[in-house]
Design a protein that fits this description.
Distance between the termini of chain B: 21 Å
Order of helices and strands of chain B: HHHHHHHHHHHHHH
CATH superfamily of the largest domain in chain B: MetI-like
Distance between the termini of chain A: 28 Å
Number of strands of chain B: 0
Oligomer: heterodimer
Shape of chain B: globular
Low-confidence stretches of chain A: none
Largest sheet of chain B: none
CATH class of the domain at 34-59 and 80-89 and 166-303 in chain A: Alpha Beta
Structural class of chain B: mainly alpha
Radius of gyration of chain B: 24 Å
Number of domains of chain B: 2
CATH architecture of the largest domain in chain B: Orthogonal Bundle
CATH superfamily of the domain at 34-59 and 80-89 and 166-303 in chain A: P-loop containing nucleotide triphosphate hydrolases
CATH architecture of the domain at 34-59 and 80-89 and 166-303 in chain A: 3-Layer(aba) Sandwich
Shape of chain A: globular
Largest interface: A-B, 26 and 23 residues
Helix content of chain B: over 70%
Low-confidence stretches of chain B: none
CATH topology of the largest domain in chain B: MetI-like fold
Mean pLDDT of chain A: 90
Number of helices of chain A: 10
Number of helices of chain B: 14
């Protein structure tokens, strides 16, 4: 459904007067999502997760430059095609109610999304139907965004994506600071959308939450994919995982050893020349510092590390 | 209930404002170098003896200390009597009423025109940020914002009245015709240039403000999400932009009544348009204290009402205020 190949995103910035410099928050990123599959993208903030979502939809700011390719349904996703497909074939579930128009009733916003999705039939009927599906009452449609609770807001936001027939749904941090029950409910909705045959991309910093519903997990570090592993590998324990960063993430989970990893992610304007994780890696060698490792398929998962063996 | 409280609060504030304002205005008038008796007599200066002057001054109570005069004026004003205008020899209320009716046509025409035109230009510029159209609108607006009203009025007069002879050179009616007896067409004909002057000046502010607000709206999170849903530029502006900039624009429009009033003083002076603005200048130059005081109070009420309406409209239209924070 979706394939991202060697994607890089850079921004031209002005610093100290008129001196221009470029930062590259995403470098050499690869990812694949199939129909009916829910892929969780996990990584610390600043690892380029949201930018990936915006790059797929073609809504990056004007000063962004991209390299590499994105394929949607086996066809290259050009800016022109993105314009035609977003809202119809590709839908976004944003982070918070702050992404809704504060002066428009939520029902009307879902109806507008239905209209833009190009679905047949009346937008109003579609909105009523999707509201019923997510346990929202008809009168909730009359509320303004400031009048909906956190849980209701999640359902409205999921409704905007589910009201159409989008084949790919990107949920960008859909569960920030929410009650555990609401988190579980929202994740359940995403799982349902995947089970209907849609491809779902769940972007989150909460690896624990992603593991409860995802088929596969892609781990982002400093703007690149360091590992893509079946979710089962995380359940199997640290040994099944391939990349040292993924293993460190796994150890940092409360239910495991709860040990944080030392150091921090390099900022996008100070990336190391070799492996991006080298400065924090316990297995670092001269070869790691010399060149960026390629993605390799090891034991049914992709990993960007030269030390892992099959 | 909430509305009643709103009105009572506003009225109390208005009363305090009017008292303070009348004191300040009265103090300024008493410090004015213009001798009202001289200004009143005017050209008959040589034919009026010093004794007669003293009589006029005595009769007008000019020999009493200012505080006493103010209190006397205040006492009568509270009973609804603002006195008699010394230059028009009519009750102040009548003069203001007549003059304001003339100004009202001028100001409302300018108000509507500048609002509609300014908003449209602002939306066109903001919706095409960085385009040649945007640059032209901005250049136009900055130039206008830096243009004095009287200068623009003179310029329009030279172009349209003197050179092209499309519009009359002054006044509210053709020579020899009383303004009250002029036909509607004649009135509109005489209104065109002053109204154009006032609206052109008002456009700049509203256009720049609207442009800024629209650009902010188009860079908001909700605009980004709408774009992700497939909304195109004008759909975005139509669905979300206008909705979010209309409120500040309406508020600004009502709050701009003070500038409109100030502008009308200058424009009416240049076009010799017999409105309230011109009467203000006359009252000031010829020491007509009762009329000047009356106009000060009236303009304060006028501007205050505009601002209060802006406030009220915000409360009525914005759902976030109207429906309160309660979910």
């Amino acid at each position: 459904m979706l394939a991202v190949r060697n994607l890089s995103i850079s921004f031209r910035m002005y610093s100290a007067g008129l001196r221009q410099h470029e930062i590259t928050p995403i470098t050499g990123l690869d990812l694949e999502v199939r129909a009916g599959e829910l892929v969780g993208i996990v990584g610390a903030s600043g690892s380029g997760k949201s930018l990936l979502a915006h790059a797929i939809l073609g809504i990056l700011p004007a000063n962004a430059r991209t390299a590499g390719e994105i394929y949607f349904k086996e066809t290259l996703l050009t800016p022109d095609r993105q314009k035609r497909l977003r809202g119809k074939e590709i839908a976004l579930i944003p982070q918070s109610v702050g992404f809704l128009d504060p002066l428009m009733r939520v029902g009307q916003q879902v109806r507008r999304a239905a209209y833009l999705s190009g679905a047949n039939g009346s937008a109003e009927a579609a909105q009523r139907q999707v509201f019923r599906r997510y346990g929202l009452r008809d009168e909730d449609a009359e509320r303004y965004p400031f009048q909906v609770s956190g849980g209701m807001a999640r359902r409205v936001l999921v409704s905007t994506a589910a009201v159409g027939q989008a084949a790919l749904i990107i949920a960008d941090e859909p569960t920030p600071g929410l009650h555990p029950a609401v988190v579980a409910e929202t994740l359940g909705h995403l799982r349902q959308l995947a089970d209907e045959g849609r491809a779902v991309l769940l972007i989150t910093h909460d690896i624990g939450a992603a593991l409860t519903v995802a088929d596969r997990i892609a781990v982002f570090y400093a703007g690149t994919t360091v590992e893509v592993a079946p979710a089962a590998d995380f359940q199997a324990g640290g040994q099944a995982l391939r990349h040292p960063y993924t293993q460190a993430l796994w150890r940092a989970l409360p239910q495991n050893q709860f040990v944080p990893i030392a150091g921090s992610q390099p900022p996008p304007d100070q990336l190391p020349a070799g492996c991006l994780f080298a400065p924090r890696c316990p297995h670092v060698s001269a070869a790691c510092r010399a060149a960026r490792p390629e993605l390799r398929l090891i034991r049914g998962g992709w990993v960007r590390c030269i030390h892992v063996e099959g | 209930m909430k509305l009643l409280l709103f009105v009572v609060k506003k009225l109390a504030r208005l009363a305090v404002l009017l008292i303070a304002l009348s004191m300040a205005a009265f103090a300024l008038v008493s410090l004015s170098p213009i001798d009202p008796v001289n200004a009143y007599i005017g050209a008959d200066m040589l034919r009026v003896s010093p004794e007669q002057r003293a009589q006029i001054a005595e009769r007008w109570g000019l020999n009493d200390p200012p505080v006493q005069r103010y209190l006397r004026w205040m006492g009568q004003a509270l009973q609804g009597d603002l006195g008699t205008s010394s230059i028009y020899r009519q009750p102040v209320i009548t003069v203001i009423g007549q003059r304001f009716t003339a100004s009202l046509a001028l100001m409302s025409a300018a108000w509507v025109l500048s609002g509609v035109l300014g908003f449209t230009l602002g939306v066109l510029a903001g919706g095409n940020e960085g385009s040649p159209l945007d640059r032209v609108v901005r250049w136009f607006a900055y130039t206008l914002a830096a243009t004095p009203t009287f200068w623009l009025a003179l310029l329009l007069l030279i172009v349209f009245s003197v050179t092209l002879r499309w519009t009359p050179i002054c006044c509210a009616a053709p020579p020899g015709v009383l303004p009250e007896e002029a036909t509607l067409l004649q009135r509109i004909h005489h209104l065109m240039l002053p109204a154009a002057t006032l609206s052109i000046i008002g456009v700049a502010n509203i256009a720049l403000h609207t442009r800024q607000k629209l650009i902010a709206a188009l860079h908001s999170d909700y605009a980004l999400f709408a774009t992700a849903q497939g909304e195109k530029r004008w759909g975005l502006i139509w669905q979300h932009g206008l909705r979010n900039i209309a409120l500040p624009a309406i508020t600004l429009q009502f709050a701009s009544l003070s500038e409109l009033f100030g502008g009308s003083v200058l424009a009416e002076q240049v076009f010799t348009y017999p409105g309230l603005g011109q009467a203000t200048v006359q009252a000031g130059l010829r020491g007509d204290v009762p009329l000047l005081m009356g106009i000060v109070l009236f303009s304060a009420i006028f501007v205050f009402t505009g601002n209060a309406l802006a406030d009220l409209i915000y409360h009525v239209i914005d759902p976030r205020i109207r429906l309160g924070g309660g979910a």
